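Researcher: Next sequence.
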Amino acid sequence: MNAAESRKMRHDKAAPYWAAALIIMVVIGVSVDVLEFGAFWRGYALDITGPAWSYILVRRLSHAYADNAWTRFFTPYRTLTLIILSVYGIELAQYFRLYDSTYDPWDFLAYVSLLVPVFLVDIRTR
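Model: Next structure:
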């Protein structure tokens, strides 16, 4: 078995687990409007889960393996960097009042608190 076949087998074997993690994160993230577990839940649940579920979707971890331009472009490091730049850019735009929203410096930590562990699992299981 060559390296490409081995990578495909590992990816496809892990895909259902990534899909389950994605579903759990989406349920937690969108439940902030339905469930009331306090200020932390309402303020940070989506900030914690959103970037991580975006990472799983962009990297196509919950899908069958594909070797195409998309998957070659969105490497783990590039995906992590782009998502961090995006969410930090949004938070900085709030800080500079570029649009009507509430700036919260704790969001910077919330964004990476689950994103970085998901990234580490991804690079470990490649």
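Model: The first helix runs from residue 3 to 30. Residues 51 and 83 are 7 Å apart (CA to CA).
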